[in-house]
Design a protein that fits this description.
This protein has about 110 residues and is an alpha+beta fold. The chain has 2 domains: about 45 residues; about 40 residues, no CATH class. Helices cover about 30% and strands about 25% of the residues. The protein has a 4-stranded antiparallel sheet with strand order 2-1-3-4, with no helix packed on it.
Length: about 110
């Protein structure tokens, strides 16, 4: 199992380690990395943040999350009622179904 950590680097060069995405100022840089079971960092990457990236925030759900399939299915239901394009709604429903199947097959 991997653990996600974040390092915040301020414009003054101060650093801080966080278990969750940290509160930041517009010019801070945030690094996201996973820690493997051996304690070594993996997959380090700069997280888009602040004016230099101007990136849209996003939230990722994994099939192993106990509520992920239900969240995605609910989103699909609400999106369908809100007039989101049918292809996206169908894709979300298929993703929710695939998440449920994955969870059942990988239950421990």
């Amino acid at each position: 199992m991997y653990k996600i950590n974040f390092v915040r680097i301020t414009t003054e060069g101060e650093t801080s380690l966080h278990d969750e995405f940290p509160l930041t100022q517009s010019h801070d840089v945030v690094l996201r990395f996973e820690i493997g079971s051996d304690g070594k960092p993996l997959n380090a990457a700069v997280v888009p943040n602040g004016s230099q990236f101007n990136a849209e925030p996003l939230f990722t759900l994994r099939s192993s999350d106990p509520m992920a399939a239900a969240y995605v299915a609910h989103w699909a239901e609400m999106a369908g009622l809100s007039g989101v394009e049918p292809e996206k709604v169908i894709n979300a429903r298929a993703t929710a179904s695939a998440m449920r199947v994955w969870k059942e097959r990988n239950a421990k």
